[in-house]
Amino acid sequence: MRWVQAIWAEVLDALYPPRCAACALVGCAGWCDECAEHIPYIALPVCVRCGTPVHPEGFCIACYRRPLVPEAVRAVTRYEGVMRAAIHRFKYEGRPSLAPALAQLLVQSWQTPLAEALHGVDVVLPIPIHRRRERERGFNQSALLAREFCQSTGLPLLRGVLERTVYRQPQVGLGEVERRENVKDAFRMVQPHAVRGKSVLLIDDVWTTGSTLNEAASTLLAAGAERVFAYTVAHEPL
Predict the structure, then answer these.
(1) pLDDT in tens, the chain (238 residues)
(2) Which end of the chain is less congested by CB atoms within 10 angstroms, N or C?
């Protein structure tokens, strides 16, 4: 009954008014005008492999030195300013309600030239977190983003296919070598048949050195995935 849903929505808005994802300004569903103007979008040209801004288009120095395992990685924004504030509130302050606002950035950029290198994927897979971490946090931020993204794009979402088997310290604050060691052998395929012969799109909130994406992609390729790509809300170069 639509009228009941409408009334319930009004009650929820009164009890829990919508707030800006970044500054928490009351009355703004998603982003307030001020924060929306300061979202640090990544613009072309970018590295054809990792999506880091470069000029002219080609491979960045990091990808010449150590190419990422995913065939192509793209992030919509830089992890700074209002984007850093929004993702911090989302992930570390327990605000799963911010997932739609952040996922909408992925959806909006999906049909732009920035994300063209990722098109043609068969299935979408969120980067899993350890069950203990999910209990502590209350949710997997990547799973929420992937769900919203797939609902808008119509791409199939895989669940319970890849799992994180090792509980280790968060990647925040670690150097490049430490990050690689911290996620080494951290993933296990639960349903290899679900990705065999398919192109897989990994979804995450932020990538820094690519260590987590590399480990997850290597596990998928070893299980028979034909190609692996990755798409994140933000990128924070180390």
Answers:
(1) 444 444 444 444 455 678 899 999 987 889 999 999 999 999 999 999 999 999 888 999 999 888 999 999 999 999 999 999 999 999 988 899 999 999 999 999 999 999 999 999 999 999 999 888 899 889 999 999 999 999 999 999 999 999 988 766 565 666 665 666 566 777 899 999 999 999 999 999 999 989 899 999 999 999 999 999 999 999 998 6
(2) N
Measured in degrees and rounded to the nearest 5, phi and psi for residue 202 equal -85, 140
Q: Which residues, other chains included, contact 181 with Cβ-Cβ below 8 Å and sequence gap of 6+?
A: none
Q: What gap in Å lies between CA 198 and CA 185, rounded to an integer?
A: 22
Question: Any alpha helices (H) in the chain, and if so which ranges?
Answer: 2-15, 33-37, 61-65, 81-92, 99-110, 131-137, 141-153, 176-182, 211-222
Helical H segments across 16-97, by residue range: 33-37, 61-65, 81-92
**Cβ distance 231 to 127 under 8 Å?**
no
Residue 235 bridge partners (DSSP): 78, 207
User: Rounded to the nearest 5°, which phi and psi values hold at 82?
Assistant: -65, -30
Tallying the residues shown for the chain, one arrives at 238
The structural domains of the chain, ordered by start, are 1-33 (no CATH), 39-235 (3.40.50)
The CA–CA distances, whole Å, from 133 to 22, 35, 110, 143 equal: 24, 30, 29, 13
Residue type, 72: A
